[in-house]
Amino acid sequence: ITYAGSAVGDADGRDELRQLAEKLNAPVAVTRCAKGALREDHPLSVAHVGGHVARQAMAQADCMIAVGCRFTSIDTGSWSYEPPRPLIQIEPDPAEVGREYACDISVVGDIRAALKLVNVACEAGQNVWAGRLERPRQEVHAQPPLPVLPQMRNTLPDDAIVSVDVHAIGYGSLNEFPVYDPKTFIYPNIGVTLGYAFPAALGAKVANPDTAVVSFSGDGGFMMGAAELATAMMYGISVVAIVVNDGALSAIKGSQRRACDGRTIDTDLVNPDFVAFAQSFGAYAARVDEDLSNFEGVLQDALAANRPALIEVPMGARQEDLIRLIGWLQPT
User: What would the pLDDT profile of 150-170 be if each residue is shown by its tens digit?
Assistant: First the structure.
């Protein structure tokens, strides 16, 4: 199995990564920062390393090629698993070799150049993974999908930039929102900063004015930067802000319950009427039905409005369901 990090994209080595995967007939898992380094519709993509398919693949692998990645505490579950052996590291920074896990073989140098040489030197592998990956993929497909994410993916063009905040559904986007290019997925991977998505989306739209840009936030996170609607209107930054309104800082509420015998404090929110709030700035705004049946049509209208837009997704009645969706709050 190959484990790819963000240095692959930094070195413009995505084609070489794909070629290596196809030559070895071996799956590719990625760090949070490298989501989409191999298109997630590629048959050898097992997506984020923390997902079910990737973990099942690693459990069966007899070797790991770690390419330009950091074995961070978040991606490794606080270093709770041992990577397949032998572990081969291809790294541009010699200080990273063996830093978290001792490696058996290391190559230090430019990622793209190294992958080109490896592609020439290695022998073609047999296609043994198709059958092995089928069962874990079926197990994932058998689970009910997270709300909103499938509708977003169905509606947005492949090259749309999606900026995701840390919230109950946003956490799941790492595993359940397919990405085809790492430059189209923005997430606060290291600091896990609440309130990040909307301001980051504004910056992405300024840098990519001809690309559809969407932010995906919870109500608490969006309100931390909601005043930037004024900035969006002032400069005509046509970002679509999707806001899940469940009336709480749900992840914090769930973690307080777990740590404090069910007690919580200061996690229930007093929210504005988000539609009226956005409209007061002159933005396009709409509230979707609670069953999400009209979500895709509303998102299409918001994209076509060609001005700053907000879509409220009312989920106050499903607050407890959302808390139960948060993987890191579940018993291990």
Answer: 999 999 999 999 999 999 999
